[in-house]
Amino acid sequence: xxxxxxxxxxxxxxxxxxxxxxxxxxxxxxxxxxxxxxxxxxxxxxxxxxxxxxxxxxxxxxxxxxxxxxxxxxxxxxxxxxxxxxxxxxxxxxxxxxxxxxxxxxxxxxxxxxxxxxxxxxxxxxxxxxxxxxxxxxxxxxxxxxxxxxxxxxxxxxxxxxxxxxxxxxxxxxxxxxxxxxxxxxxxxxxxxxxxxxxxxxxxxxxxxxxxxxxxxxxxxxxxxxxxxxxxxxxxxxxxxxxxxxxxxxxxxxxxxxxxxxxxxxxxxxxxxxxxxxxxxxxxxxxxxxxxxxxxxxxxx
Length: 301
Hints:
Layout: E1 19-22, H1 27-36, H2 43-52, E2 54-59, E3 69-78, E4 82-90, H3 99-110, E5 116-120, H4 125-130, E6 134-144, H5 154-157, E7 160-162, H6 168-179, H7 184-187, H8 190-193, E8 196-202, E9 205-215, E10 218-226, H9 229-242, E11 249-254, H10 258-266, E12 270-280, E13 292-294
Parallel strand pairs: 4-5, 10-11
Antiparallel strand pairs: 1-2, 2-3, 3-4, 5-12, 6-11, 6-12, 7-8, 8-9, 9-10, 10-13
């Protein structure tokens, strides 16, 4: 993709460019824009987002010889309760022209007054603060080859197995209070989206579930929802054991779970890339953080 600037004689008027819906047919254009900004070419994740959520985009004006998609945002609905925004991108040649602010504002307006949350990088946080979002926490991304140097508790490991179709009603019921709103649409996609989908049981009852899915160069663990830290550790250890050989494991750790972060570091996962969790229209994120140990992905909460 070239980075030819728009003609100086025809300066961009952001409000003059139409916002349109994005769909699966726009996958290639979304990937090209992401790669141009240094993001990985995550076709697997983008495909899910464009099907489960609503994408909005702005195309380059006709007089831009580079053409293509120049700005995006995706809004993922959680029934009639919340919206999660992600994939806020603007082509570098159109930076600081208000396209990102306009798209996010459009997605917020389309939410119809429902609370909206997102994960913001440090450069993006000022934009969201100007739109009224406030920070309620943060997530640190760590990665590495899981060593197993500090094992998961044996009593829980024995209860971890692959999920089956018959587990889905129990998974949905377990997830609802943990996430704080219904995410049936996304969880029912896990069997086809994830490489691994596990449940934990104790005394005949479901005590947690977890999944891992592919990202270029890594295996991403998430979501991880469990009744306690020991169960979460057992699920993560099994996910790591089943990951493709040679690929690092990526984990997005909520800072409200420092014990889990310490355990992952002791098992070879390190990193300091942080995102702020921000929300508009509600005092805090929904759900029970004591059970929510990893997001589906940062783009989905």
